[in-house]
Amino acid sequence: MSLTNTRLSDSIANARTVKIQKTNDTFYDFKLYPFGERGTYIAPELINEITDNLAVSIESHFLNYDYIVSPEPGGHTWGMLAAYKLLKPINILRLSTDLYKDIHLEAKRETAYNENRICFDGFQAGDRVLLVDDVISSGATIRSIAVQMEEMGVKLVGVQAIIAKGEHYRKLEEDLHVPVRILSQV
Q1: Which Gene3D superfamilies match (predicted)?
Q2: Would residue 27 count as lying in a domain?
């Protein structure tokens, strides 16, 4: 199966931009991609196209991993769909809440528009994982996850994302020494 990104390209081109206020003086222009963390309605044809293309890309580029890891709020939907399609297990990195107060492995995640903590549970030293996310902007989320995984003895074998904003994903690949693959770049 070859990669076709017709619906994905259309959804990127038609995404609205909103301003998110991070601090009193700091605003961030945020694209509301339907497939992204603040997207809402996603047409079934777009879901199918993205899921199929993630599976094809993963099968083409990543062979030796034990399971998929995907962070909330945006990546976990696509990690779940890719895991289903590929018949692989998934470990979802949940945003920290009081529900996870007994889970002591957390990593701070700070992006251009927000700050939170990600919970790590169910990992074992020696696990080989593939990180699936929706959007790579600065790479801050992936970097914070990679640092925590290294501390836990978990091997990050690569990153698969739907889209990358700019060239930051290339720096991630260089810094983390793993392949970073995307379906589209904006």
Answers
A1: 3.40.50.2020
A2: no
